[in-house]
Specification:
about 270 residues, mainly alpha, two-stranded antiparallel ribbon, about 75% helix, globular
Length: about 270
């Protein structure tokens, strides 16, 4: 699982940090997906805002399992890249999740804390990487990358029937979309999911802070880290919230700000034609 974790996390982090993919890999992707392109600016921004809107309304529950899967994969792949052995992921019908792993001898609280911390930022980081990939014209390749990640989760990690059913359905749908839909439509979908994940990352982090206040000792990620470092769980939970919110805001800025004037012009044209 170490190699798989590297192959998943390195491209995501590379894109999220704004580095872009290595030239050799980018050229190879152009050969494999010669029709790949950057979505129109209005489409990217409007779809991202649409995803934010869905994430901020009761309709967010329709896609809630996606954020849970990304959260748990954040735990699993971080454990794998740090030398642990991810064992399984459980996704409950309530959209709660659990990722377990086997640490090696001498694991220590440092690596354990990184694994526990990685879950809540994972949706926001995935959102940022998706926006970067769209802006670099890697729409189809990102769709296949996401589909492959879900497929890996099914084969190696998902171990309960509900998690398997939902993840298999999502990966099958994603593959069908990637192989049949126009590139611009794929761009809309990816941007919408990116906006949704940015909002869900914030929501989950905020819920963790509230959970620590109302039900201390429930055993959330922040409480585990706080126990290992003898800190206040509310402090760790607040760090989670600040970190995730910052990534989500930055992702939103990249998706929306460069095209704000174009979006306004587009809306004005709609109003004039109507």
């Amino acid at each position: 699982m170490w190699l798989i974790s590297v192959l998943i996390l390195i491209p995501v982090c590379y894109l999220a940090l704004g580095r872009g993919l290595p030239v050799e890999l980018a050229d190879r992707l152009k050969e494999v997906f010669p029709q790949d392109q950057v979505p129109t600016s209005q489409a990217l921004a409007i779809a991202f805002v649409g995803g934010l809107f869905i994430g901020g309304t009761p309709f967010h529950s329709i896609f809630r399992y996606l954020a849970t899967v990304v959260h748990e994969l954040g735990h699993a792949f971080t454990a794998g890249i740090l030398g642990g052995r991810p064992k399984n992921i459980t996704i409950a019908p309530s959209a709660s999740g659990l990722a377990t792993y086997q640490p090696p001898i001498g694991w220590g609280r440092g690596r354990a804390s990184l694994v526990s911390f990685a879950g809540y930022p994972a949706p926001a980081i995935a959102s940022l990487a998706a926006v970067r990939s769209l802006q670099q014209g890697q729409t189809v390749s990102w769709f296949f990358f996401a589909t492959g990640t879900l497929a890996i989760a099914i084969v190696f990690l998902i171990r309960n029937w509900w998690g398997f059913f939902w993840t298999a359905t999502a990966s099958t749908g994603a593959y069908f979309a990637a192989t049949n839909l126009p590139i611009q439509t794929l761009g809309w979908i990816i941007a919408g999911i990116a906006g949704y994940l940015a909002m869900e990352g914030y929501r989950h982090s905020w819920q963790q802070v509230q959970l620590i206040k109302r039900m201390p000792g429930v055993g959330c990620d922040a409480e585990h880290i706080a126990y290992w470092w003898k800190q206040n769980p509310r402090f760790i939970g607040s760090l989670h919230l600040i970190f995730v919110t910052g990534i989500g805001i930055y992702s939103s800025y990249l998706a929306i700000n460069p095209y704000w004037n174009e979006i306004l012009d587009w809306f004005k044209q709609l109003l004039e034609t109507n």
